[in-house]
Amino acid sequence: MRYIEPHAHMVSRTTDDYEKLALAGCEALCEPAFWAGFDRSSADGFYDYFRQLTEYEPKRAARFGIKHFCWLCINPKEADDPGFAREVMSLIPQFIEKENVLGIGEIGLNKNTRSELKIFEEHVQIALDHDLPILIHTPHLEDKLKGTKLILDSLASFSKLDRSKVIIDHVEEHTVKHVMDAGYWAGMTLYPESKCTPNRAIDILETYGTERIWMNSACDWGVSDPMAVPKCALEMRRRQYTPEQIAKIVFENPKQFLSQSPRFKL
Amino acid sequence: MLSKKELLDLQFIDARARLIDLAAFLDRLERHDGEADIRLKYFKQALPILQEDRPDRAKAVLDKFSDHSTELPETAPFQGAAGAPVS
Questions:
Q1: Calpha distance B47→B4 (Å, rounded)
Q2: How far apart are CA A244 and CA A262, in angstroms?
């Protein structure tokens, strides 16, 4: 089965994981910039991180025949310090023309603060200025519903925003309708403990349809599974989905959204 | 889509195991010393939703565990998330 992993933090994963992804049929993966599990002490840390995303990881992925793409930003958690965030954001223009950069992400909110919101909106403006797609992180657990609503309210104030070029990630049953009704793409993250299980993700597809939606593992340094997408595809098979229906979710839909970036080529 | 019978054949044993695990979790809390916190209150408030006749129980449980406040702090008072509104 060929598939695309549209959200994976491979800087936190082993080379063995690349091999597992390749064996499972992964043709391409996309790595949004994120929080590394600790707060970086200076913008220089992000300079190195952006080099890792744009220079090193594509080579590591290529050893297994996987195309590697990335998104750039300062993540919502470290964006709670606006001065620091703007220092990091000033680095983005140096990297934005690199050949594997798809857009701005994963921006969003973490604890739903005014500071996070300001930096979120400044990131959206960068994306608009460069006509780039946007990948948005929604907060964890109890903060997700409030944060999703804040993000949607904020995005509504950008009159020139093309909603078909924005994906709002980590939706669950209580946020997916808000996102899809507003005309954005929705991402479902398959996590063992938080976010969606495979069966809940399939339930969401059955309830809200299979257009403008994808699923991802968002595998990182925490409790997560790089094989989550193929495992969910297996669950779809067990629930008698056809290979064509599965391919739409794990390959065609991400390809459709990501192809809005001219740099996304398989 | 699978019929109800087919879905039960496929998933009943797994769902049964999860339900027993939930019951055992509550037994465990009962047995251990000390005071529980507000997370357990939210947990117990969510349980009756499972018994309701409605098509969106998962959403209702998630709504129960969500922060419904409207004020925005300037910066984060703490980091992380507990799974239920604790502040």
A1: 23
A2: 26
- Determine the structural domain holding residue B49 and report its residue range: 35-68
For A222, phi and psi rounded to 5 degrees? -95, -165
A174 lies within 8 A of chain B by CB: yes
Q: Shortest Cα distance from B14 to chain A (angstroms)?
A: 12
Return the domain boundaries, chain A: 3-258
Closest CA to A67 of A99, A39, A37: A99
pTM > 0.95: yes
Residue in chain A closest to B74 (alpha carbons) equals A114
> What ipTM, to 2 d.p.?
0.96
Q: What would the pLDDT profile of B1-23 be if each residue is shown by its tens digit?
A: 999 999 999 999 999 999 999 99
Q: What is the pLDDT of residues A3-37, one digit of tens each?
A: 999 999 999 999 999 999 999 999 999 999 999 99
Residues of A in contact with B13 (CB under 8 A): none
What total number of domains does chain B contain? 2
CATH T-level assignment (fold) for domain A3-258: TIM Barrel (3.20.20)
Does a structural domain hold residue B52? yes
Mean pLDDT of A235-246: 98
The whole-angstrom distance between B85's CA and the closest CA on chain A is: 6
